[in-house]
Specification:
Elements lengths: L3 H5 L6 H22 L6 E3 L5 E3 H17 L4 E4 L11 E9 L1 H5 L6 E8 L2 E9 L4 E6 L3 E4 L2 E2 L12 E4 L7 H11 L4 E4 L4 H8 L4 E4 L4 H4 L2 H7 L3 E3 L14 E4 L2 H11 L5
Parallel strand pairs: 3-4, 10-11, 10-12
Antiparallel strand pairs: 1-2, 4-5, 5-6, 6-7, 7-8, 8-9, 12-14, 13-14
Keywords: Amino-acid biosynthesis, Histidine biosynthesis, Hydrolase, Magnesium, Metal-binding
Cofactor: Mg(2+)
Pfam families: Inositol_P (PF00459)
Length: about 270
C-alpha cells in the first residue's frame, strides 16, 4: 500500500522544469526594470537604511503573482513583501533589484535574482541583468550558462593571483573589515562595486574571488547554483553551505584551493 503521507506531499518539479520557469520569471522582470531605469523614480528608505523604489516593488509583485499562478503550493521569500510558506518543499527566493543603490544612481550593474530552493538546496539560480541584457543561469548538476553559452571559473588557486571584489567596504562590521583588509593585502587586485554582477564574473572566469557580509537569503541563494555550476565554490566564512538560514557572510571563489586560502584569512571574523 502506498504511503499516505507521501501521497499527500506536493511533488517537487525536476530542475529542468524549475529552470525553464525561472527564465520565464527573468523574462517577465527585464522589461519592467528597464521601464524604470534612469527615470526619476522616487526612493524610500527602509528601517535598515536600505533604499527601495517603485521598480523594486513592481518587479517583486509581478514575480510573486507569476509564481503563485504557476506553482500555488510553493513558498516565496522576497525582499519587499512578507514571506509565504518558507517551510514548503520548494521555495522561490527572489530579489527584484539586487543593487538598488546602483539602480538609483544609473549604474547598470544591478540584477534581478531568482532561486528555486528544493528541500533546502538551491537547485536553480538566475542572475538577470536587465540594463545590459546579460543573464546567468545555474542548474544543480547541469552547469552554468551565460547568455546561452556554457561558462566556467578561472583556474586561480593562490591569493597572489586572485582578482577580488566586494560590493562596498561599508558592508563589513569592524572585525569583518579587518579580516577583509588582511585578505586584500594578499591578492593581486581589489575592486569594489558590482553587486550580484561580480558573482557572474566569477562564473565566467573574469573575477576569482568575491567576499561580502551582511547579506540576506534573497541576496545570495540565486548565486549558489551559478557559481557552483561554473566550477567554483561558494559558502559562508566558516566554509558551511549557504542556506536560507545562513548568517550573511559569503565567500565565492574560482577554485577549492583559492576558497580554502580565503577562508584561512577570514577565519578570525567568521561567525
Amino acid at each position: 500500500m502506498p504511503n499516505s503521507a507521501a501521497a499527500l506531499r506536493p511533488a517537487v518539479p525536476d530542475a529542468g522544469d524549475l529552470a525553464a520557469f525561472a527564465e520565464q520569471l527573468a523574462d517577465l522582470a527585464r522589461p519592467i526594470v528597464r521601464s524604470y531605469f534612469r527615470t526619476p523614480v522616487g526612493v524610500e528608505w527602509k528601517a535598515d537604511l536600505s533604499p527601495v523604489t517603485v521598480a523594486d516593488t513592481a518587479v517583486e509583485r509581478a514575480l510573486r503573482e507569476a509564481i503563485a499562478a504557476r506553482f500555488p503550493d510553493h513558498g516565496i521569500l522576497g525582499e519587499e513583501e512578507a514571506a509565504v510558506g518558507i517551510d514548503r518543499p520548494v521555495v522561490w527566493v527572489v530579489d527584484p533589484i539586487d543593487g538598488t543603490k546602483s539602480f538609483m544612481t544609473g549604474l547598470p550593474l544591478f540584477g534581478t535574482l531568482i532561486a528555486a530552493v528544493a528541500q533546502g538546496r538551491a537547485e536553480v539560480g538566475v542572475i538577470e541583468v536587465p540594463a545590459l541584457g546579460d543573464r546567468w543561469i545555474g542548474i544543480a548538476g547541469a552547469g552554468t550558462r551565460f547568455n546561452g553559452a556554457p561558462c566556467s571559473t578561472s583556474a586561480a588557486a593562490r591569493l597572489g593571483e586572485a582578482r577580488l571584489y566586494a560590493t562596498s567596504p561599508d558592508m563589513f562590521a569592524p572585525a569583518e573589515g579587518a579580516a577583509f583588509g588582511a585578505l586584500a593585502q594578499k591578492v593581486a587586485l581589489r575592486r569594489f562595486g558590482g553587486d550580484c554582477y561580480a558573482y557572474g564574473l566569477v562564473a565566467c572566469g573574469h573575477v576569482d574571488l568575491v567576499v561580502e557580509a551582511g547579506l540576506k537569503p534573497y541576496d545570495y541563494m540565486a548565486l549558489v547554483p551559478v557559481v557552483e555550476g561554473a566550477g567554483g565554490v561558494i559558502t559562508d566564512w566558516r566554509g558551511a553551505p549557504l542556506t536560507i538560514a545562513s548568517g550573511g557572510q559569503v565567500v565565492a571563489a574560482a577554485t577549492a584551493a583559492l576558497h580554502a586560502a580565503a577562508l584561512a584569512e577570514l577565519q578570525p571574523a567568521a561567525r
